[in-house]
Amino acid sequence: MEALGVSSVEYLKALSTLLSTQQDDDGDDEDCKNVAACAGLGPGHIGPPPKRDKEVSTVCGKEDSKDIWSEEEVGEGSQYDDPADPRPPPEYEVILKQSVGTEDLFLGLNRKDPSSMCCEAMLVKIKLPETEATDVVLDVKEKFLDLRTPKYKLGLHLPHPIHSQGGKAQFFSERGELEVTLPMKRPMDLINMP
Asked: Phi/psi of residue 87, each to 5°?
């Protein structure tokens, strides 16, 4: 390109004027004649300049408030964290469940696959040895499960949002295990689920 007498800076300048929607005749040609002045040009300089918003958004909705965080910034379940509580967390297991019939298994009629996107429920198995069903306090939110007993404490951030009102809990005293079944809330439920 240099052999033809046209430099890459001139190509960049020509491309910039081609793609620019605004017609600025401020005399930019004089500035680009100096190679040192054009050395700062890059792909970000092609096209119209970015629009700047005059309104500056504030971090807090209230200017008079002395709060460090707003309610939206605090993660769900953080009010249950207590580092001074000596109770250990129990062993637990999170299992994703699907309802699969013969039409899914052999014919594939409902478009289900083994991925987690096709799961309808989440099963949380919590081992609570030497615990009675009356001692268990369970609170389930959309993304957080809080379990408390005299011996154990569990604050579990769930891997997927759930419908907290449609859950079911069952305690098996012979195994010392609590099974919590929670229906999952998916943004694409109407598309993925038949």
From this structure: -65, 135
d(CA 14, CA 81): 60
* Percent over 70 (pLDDT), the chain: 66
CA neighbours within 13 Å on the CB side: how many for 145? 28
Tokens encoding 145: 């499960």
Q: Which residues have CB under 8 Å from 162's CB, separation 6+?
A: 122, 140, 142, 143, 182, 183, 184, 185
Q: What's the full length of the chain, in residues?
A: 194
Question: Token pair of 189, please?
Answer: 């439920």
pLDDT at residue number 60: 45
SS3 61: coil
User: How does DSSP assign 109-141, residue by residue?
Assistant: TT---SSGGG--EEEEEEE-TT--GGG-EEEE-
CB atoms within 10 A of CB 162: 25
Q: What are phi and psi of 30, to 5 degrees?
A: -65, -35
- For 34-64, the pLDDT digits (tens) are 555 566 677 777 777 777 655 544 544 455 6
Contact indicator for 176, 130 with CB cutoff of 8 Å:
yes
Using CA atoms of 180, 181, 187, 192 in order, give the dihedral in degrees to the nearest 10. Answer: 150
Dihedral angle sign, alpha carbons of residues 129, 132, 135, 139: positive
